[in-house]
Structure formats: structure tokens, C-alpha cells
Amino acid sequence: MKTIPHALHPGATIGIIGGGQLGRMLAMAAARLGFETVILTPEAENCAGPVAGTVLIADYTDPEALARLASLAQVVTFEFENVPAKTLEILGGLGCQVAPGAKALAVAQDRVDEKTFLNTHGVPTVDFAPVSSLADLVEALARIGAPALLKTRRDGYDGKGQVWIENHDRATAEAAFIGLGAKPCILEAPAAFVREVSVIAARGHDGEVAAYPLGENHHESGILRRTSAPARVSPATLDQAQTLATRIVTALDYVGVMGVEMFELANGQLLVNEIAPRVHNTGHWTLDGCEVDQFEQHIRAIVGWPLGPTHALAQVEMTNLLGGEILDWGNLAAEAEARLWIYGKGEPRPGRKMGHVNRLFPLKP
Amino acid sequence: MKTIPHALHPGATIGIIGGGQLGRMLAMAAARLGFETVILTPEAENCAGPVAGTVLIADYTDPEALARLASLAQVVTFEFENVPAKTLEILGGLGCQVAPGAKALAVAQDRVDEKTFLNTHGVPTVDFAPVSSLADLVEALARIGAPALLKTRRDGYDGKGQVWIENHDRATAEAAFIGLGAKPCILEAPAAFVREVSVIAARGHDGEVAAYPLGENHHESGILRRTSAPARVSPATLDQAQTLATRIVTALDYVGVMGVEMFELANGQLLVNEIAPRVHNTGHWTLDGCEVDQFEQHIRAIVGWPLGPTHALAQVEMTNLLGGEILDWGNLAAEAEARLWIYGKGEPRPGRKMGHVNRLFPLKP
Fold first, then answer.
1. Mean pLDDT, chain A, as a whole number?
2. pTM of the model
3. Do A1 and B330 touch (CB under 8 A)?
């Protein structure tokens, strides 16, 4: 038996920080394996609670709620990377096991720290510079050139908190910096990529790493529109991607599933764009394309179970259902090859991720 | 769009009567499609509640709980066939939609009514006779012969409430009848079957019928041990099974998934042994062997959505994990081809269904 000595038994309780669709699908995967779940979220209206045994509605740093979470759960995980450091401190002080750990969160929460960490471990990224002031930005633009992408160091997602700077003009730079709130930023060189790909990798307590085939991703307005997987890449590119992902999760002594977004350049080289220390939208294709999906894989990793197989059983095209697109559920339900996932959210606001559909096709040889 | 005009939208609430593993997996399937769920069960410790939004702990005939259920749910279904008639009366009186309907339940709850119904609709069964008294039993034995199987007309499951009568001896007959509590019974001729097979069929609101490939079932001590699917049967047998199942669900104006257990005789003829107006243990292989499993199919049917595809994607061997077998979860989790479902029940009492494992193999041509 390959499970670690301290693997959690079915019936144990898993804490999940965050009440969105990723928390919901994590709770469903935990239930499949016989685990209980408890969700912590500040939102009374949330979509993970209805599929979890217990829901704690409280701020992420509420000491009482965290004490309750720690007393109920044998391990705590999260569905988003911007978990406050204070939350982890409090849980740590209570002796609560958190997976993935604080190091991965810290690295993923700050774009400068993230790229610095990656480069330090031999993982290539675009050229970048930290920006704390307008003077920094002007200097960075002079070195990196324009156009370049200015992003806040922290808290951006789905294309928010970033702006392209098209020229070296000081006024343009100033407008961009002010526009982002004059917060600490990062200036990134553009990547002349031919494709955006991602790899979903998992690492167990015992250091075992398992990576899924690559997904090819298409974004619109900064939001993931669709993923095609397995991506048709050369064996060398696949190997390169899996090597980089393995290097990252190993360097972080990581436990759980991680999404690693990459740019594929014309010469086949891969640059890592971003890491997400959690289950990832570009891994939703695994829900219907693999024997063990990313959510079950994450649960397996954090409870100390052996990782499951990661090969693809089908060619999958995953399409996010954004905002009002969810209203087309009737036609989607009638489509034979379409596998529907609907998140049980309320209002279909524009751009809001309401569900996704996995369309299955025979694997290409 | 093929959905019926009154199909329920994602976000609607589905009521489920019963808090066991079938209710649990129904609730998980409902969640996948964005539905809310409410469970009604008399047991405070139940395994469906933790994955449902609302749990009502009350007797199945509690008027207050049923009023609450009817006010929350747009449609009510059940995980077991022995729902009291009073429950359906109360829900009906409240204008609550119940699927499958009262007719299917009534027929499935009484073994004599069931076989009479089947024969009336051209569905063959073993020879049988109703038994209300010892005199009836003696007469039935004289006609049907011994050995024969005496069962209570109502409430038997997993081999309970039945006994073989090995000879025509009046004392033997009396002991058997008294042993079953001298309740209304049925005497059944034995079937000289070569295999036990079952078909899981679904019928939608619009009368569309979809049947999965056959499962071949192996029982031990009256409890399902394993199902292999798709069963290797001739095209004629498959056709015969699907025709019989279609005849049954159509005659009942049925809505939902039904399990139809059959005996395959040496000459290829099929006799229907039992119908279960609900998702069925012999259909658990579909959870990992089909795009749309029996639980999602049931939800689709009762909410008025189009039925999903039913072809097999893999050869599956489903094995129930009974009692202490669940303690082997560590080895099962480490088995690459094993897909685990653990029900989150407490005590692994002998014979208790604690989970199941689907082992996947490439489809045989």
C-alpha cells in the first residue's frame, strides 16, 4: 500500500476556505471519497455550502470561525490564492494542517516574488521589473521597452489590475500607474507566444508528482474562454512543461494540485506566466476527460492518499459559461457530446463564471 | 431544443425522500447540474444530508415535514420503493409533483401486483401464486412444485423476507409461512437461469426512453456482490431486454430511472425478476462507465430535461464494498484502474453497503 502512514481515513473532515465553484467541486470530490467537508466563506450566498456538511459564514480572519474550522477539520485547503497571511498564522497557531502550505501561497500572491522564485529555480519567465514608483516605472520601461504590461503585484485576477503601456511616454506611464492605484506593481515584457498552454500538476505528501496532459487555453478580455486538451504539442514540449511543473512543486515542497500557465514561443520554448496554488479553471476538462479529475486529485494529495492516473480518456473542449450564456442550458443539455457543470450561482452577471461545458471527442492518435 | 416546456431551470430545488447512498449520489448529480436539494429522512445520522442544501429529519409521513418539503421542492423523488402510500397522498394533496409516480411505487411495492402487472403487459416472469394462508400455500406448492421460493409480498430487500421451500411437506410449508410472520406472501417457481442480468432504463416526461447496456450481476447471500457491464450477451438478448424495459416504463407512464432485474434462461429467454422504481445498485457501473450516469439521468428525467447518452465508454466491473471491506480503502486508492465511491456511512456493520469500486478496462469489441 502506497498511502503515507498518516493518511486520513474516509469519514475525516476537510476544511475548504472559499465558497465559490472551485470549493463546490472540491467538496463534491471529497464526498465521492467519503470525506466530510466544512466551508469557510464570508458570503451567506455561496455555491459551495449547499454541497458541504458544514458552512461557517465569517470573515477569513475571524478568530472564532478559524478556531471552529480547526477543531472540525483534520486538514484545511483553499480554493483561491489570496488567502490572508493572517488566516494562515491563526490556523498555524492552532496546530491546524494546511495544504498547500504558506510558502506556496506567499509566492503566488506576489507577482514579483513569484517570477523571482521561478527564475531562481531555473524556470524561465518573461523579463520583468518591480515597480514601486513612477520613477521605477520609467526606468523599467527604458530597459524592457514598450509595449509592456503593468500589473499590480497582488490581488489581480481575470484580467483585473493590469494595463498595457503602449509607448515610453512619461504621461502614458503615469496614467497607467495612477490608473492601477499607484500600488506596488510589476512591469512585464510581452511574450511573443504562439499559444497559451497550462499544465495541472499534483504533488503528494510523499513527494510523488503527477501531471495531466497540457491544455491549450484561449482567453477573451482576460477571462478564460476555453481549454482544449490534450493540447497538440510535440513530445519535447510536453516533457518541458511537465519538467518545469515538477521543478516548481518540488521546490515549494508542495502538497496538492497546482495550475501552471505557460506561454509557448515560436521556437518551442515555454515561459511560465503564472502559478495558481489550487485547482484551476484550465483543469476543468479533467472532470470528464480523466479517470481522476483535478478536484479528486487535490483531495487525494492533501489527505495523503496515492495520486490517481492522469492520462486523458477523451479529447475535451472545455468552454466556460459566462454570465447570460448559462441561460442556454436547455440546448446544452440536449447536446449529446456536451457534459454540463452548473455552479448553482444566483445572478448571471456579465463575465461571471456560471458553469462550464466539456465537449468530448475521441482521442486523436 | 428538446426540453419540455415545463422543464425546471438550474437553481430549482429537488426533494429526495431517503437519506442513504442512493439519495447521496442523486444529490451529487443534482448539484452537478446546478440544482438545489432537500433530503427527507427519519435518521439524524444519514449520508445524503451532508451533500444536500437542506435536510429535514422527520418521519416519512410527518405532515409538517412533508409540507416543508413540498414548499421547498419543485419536484420530489425517492431513493427507495417502500415509500408509504400516506406520504404520496399528503404530497399529492399539497399539489406537489412526485416522480416517478404513485402507480410505479404501488406496483413495485407488492410482488404479486408487480408480476401480475408485468404479465398483463406481455412481460414474462416465473410462475407464481399469491399466498394469504397456509391452505393457499399448500395449494400453490401442489401446482408450482418444490423447490419454490416463498417471499413476503411487501418490504423485502437484499434477500430479507424470503425462504426456499424444498419439498411439499405440509410441516415444511407451515414452518416457512410462520417463519415469514404469516404475512401475505408470494410463492415463486425457481428460474433455471444461466445468468442474472439487469437493465437500467430511463423515461423522460416526453416519453423518450433510454436504456443502458446490460449488467451481469452476481449476488451472495441475497446481496449484490458485483456487476460486470456491458454484459456479453447476444444482440438479440440485448434487444429483448431493452424492449421489455421500454414496455414496462411506457405502461407505467414512468418518469425517471428504473432498474429491471432479469433472469437469462439457457434458451436466451429473459424473465423479469423484479423492478425497482429508482436508481439501482446494478447501475453504479455507469458512474464511471458512461458519459451520463444513472443518477444524472434520473435527475434529467424528473426535471424534464432531455435524457443523456447511455453507451458504455469502458468495460466496468463494479464491486460492492460490504461491511469491513471498506477498511481496505488504502489499497483500493492505490489501484490505478479502481474508481472509488465511499458513502460516508458510520459503522461498517457486516453486509452494510459502505461503498463500491468501479474497475475500468478497455471496451471489448
1. 95
2. 0.95
3. yes
Q: In B, which residues are within 8 Å of A51 by CB distance?
A: 27-28, 31, 51-53
Do you find a cis peptide bond into A147, omega within 30 degrees of 0?
A: yes
Cα A319 to Cα A338: distance, rounded to the nearest angstrom? 10
Residue to substitute from B329, B331, B356, interface A, most A β-carbons within 10 A: B329
Distances (CA, A) of B290 to A29, A336, B309, B360: 18, 12, 8, 11
Among the listed residues A98, A147, A149, the one whose alpha carbon sits nearest the alpha carbon of residue A128: A149
Task: Tell which residue, B173, B159, B160, B85, has the closest CA to residue B129.
Answer: B173
A147 touches chain B (CB under 8 A): no
B308: closest CA among B176, B211, B199? B211
Question: Does CATH number 3.30.470.20 belong to domain A193-361?
Answer: yes
Q: B326 and A10: CB-CB below 8 Å?
A: yes
> Checking DSSP bridges between strand A185-188 and strand A148-152, what pairing results, if any?
antiparallel
The ipTM estimated for the assembled molecules is 0.94
Q: Is A334 on the interface with B (CB under 8 A)?
A: yes
Cα A176 from chain centroid (whole Å): 27
Work out the minimum CA distance from A338 to partner chain B, whole angstroms: 9
* Cell matching residue B99: 416522480
Question: Which residue is closest to A37 within chain B, CA to CA?
Answer: B50
Chain B residues within 8 A of A331 when measuring between CB atoms: 1
Q: Which of B25, B28, B51 to mutate to test the interface with A (most CBs of A within 10 A)?
A: B51
Across the interface, do A334 and B306 touch by the CB < 8 Å criterion? yes
Dump pLDDT digits (tens) for A151-195: 999 987 667 889 999 988 899 999 999 999 999 999 999 999 999
Any B CB within 8 A of A340 CB: yes
Instruction: Extract the C-alpha cell encoding A230.
Output: 490534450
Put simply, the answer to whether B50 touches A53 (Cβ < 8 Å) is: yes
Cβ–Cβ gap A34/B343 under 8 Å: yes
Of B51, B53, B334, the CB nearest to A3: B334
Pick A329's closest partner by Cβ from B10, B292, B360.
Answer: B10
Q: For chain A, where do the domains classified as CATH 3.30.1490.20 start and end?
A: 127-188
Beta carbons within 10 angstroms of residue A328's beta carbon = 12
Domain A127-188: give its CATH code: 3.30.1490.20
Name residue A241's amino acid. Answer: A
The span from the CA of A284 to the CA of A24, in Å, is 13
Interatomic CA distance for residues A290 and A278, integer angstroms: 18
pLDDT digits (tens, 9 = 90+) for B206-258: 999 999 999 999 999 889 999 999 999 999 999 999 999 999 999 999 999 99
pLDDT by 10s per residue, chain B, length 365:
444 567 999 999 999 999 999 999 999 999 999 999 999 999 999 999 999 999 999 999 999 999 999 999 999 999 999 999 899 999 999 999 999 999 999 999 999 999 999 999 999 999 999 999 999 999 999 999 999 999 999 987 666 889 999 988 899 999 999 999 999 999 999 999 999 999 999 999 999 999 999 999 999 988 999 999 999 999 999 999 999 999 999 999 999 999 999 999 999 999 999 999 999 999 999 999 999 999 999 999 999 999 999 999 999 999 999 999 999 999 999 998 899 999 999 899 999 999 999 999 999 77
SS3 content of chain A, % helix, strand, coil (to 5): 30, 30, 40
Amino acid residing at B354: M
Please state, in angstroms and rounded to a whole number, the distance separating the CA atoms of residues B179 and B152: 10
Compute the Cα dihedral for B112, B116, B119, B121 and give only its sign.
Answer: negative
Sheet holding A162-165, edge to edge: A128-131, A185-188, A148-152, A162-165
At the topology level, CATH places domain A13-98 in Rossmann fold (3.40.50)
Q: Where are the domain boundaries for CATH 3.40.50.20 in chain A?
A: 13-98
